[in-house]
Amino acid sequence: MMKQYFSLTLVAVIAILVSCAENEEPSSPLLGTWESRVYVDSLNLWFVETMEFKNDSIFDLTQSFRSSETGPDLGYRLMAPSWYNLEGSTFKFYYSNGLFHFSTPNDPALYVPKSELKVGVADIFRIPEGVLTFTSDRKKFKYEENCFVVSPNNPCIQLPPKEYIRVK
Q1: How far apart are CA 103 and CA 100, in angstroms?
Q2: Beta partners for residue 47, in sequence order
Q3: Using H for helix, E for strand and C for coil, what is the string for 63-122?
Q4: Under a CB-based contact definition with an 8 Å cutoff, are residues 95 and 122 in contact?
Q5: pLDDT at 134
Q6: Distance CA 123, CA 97 (A)
Q7: Domain boundaries in the chain?
């Protein structure tokens, strides 16, 4: 009887260990690093927005400039820890604290080295929300932000969609 009990216990422990060892799919299909790269003709530069998703609710948002699409970053405009929520295809995100560079008449530079970004708070008056559409191979997604109403008397403002590609 004792031998039979030991065998059943051993089988149960092995079954538990095997089920825990199976690879589970990550909760968020966004985990990893994604970039939106847009060439700006008038500047002869690439504007790059990078989203590095750390887990199911946090990502780092970076805005930088490059002289080539995949080359090194020349400088930065924004680096901000951010939070997000993805429910189905609806994506919402928000950031406020971060490192920023804002061009001014006294400092018209579009970007600066990382070391020259300043700690600040962005007063974002709304939480951006829109629809994410993934390609079938999950290597790209398109983000179409919902239009937003600035005031009740004005029509909503529709921003152009952004395409992101997985880089890591």
Answers
A1: 10
A2: 38, 65
A3: EEEECCCCCCEEEEEEEEEEEEEEECCEEEEECCEEEECCCCCCCCCCCECHHHCEEEEC
A4: yes
A5: 94
A6: 9
A7: 29-166
To the question of pTM greater than 0.70 for the whole model, the response is yes
* Pair of tokens at residue 75: 């400088």
**The CATH number of domain 29-166, selected from 3.40.50, 2.40.128, 3.90.550, 1.20.120:** 2.40.128
Residues ≥6 apart with Cβ < 8 Å to 39 = 45, 46, 47, 69
What are the pLDDT digits (tens) for 37-94?
A: 999 999 999 999 999 999 989 999 999 999 999 999 999 999 999 999 999 999 999 8
Q: How far apart are CA 135 and CA 66, in angstroms?
A: 26
Q: Which amino acid is at 34?
A: W
Q: How many residues does the chain have?
A: 168
* Predicted confidence (pLDDT) at residue 116 exceeds the cutoff of 60: yes
The winner for highest mean pLDDT among 25-34, 72-81, 101-110 is 72-81
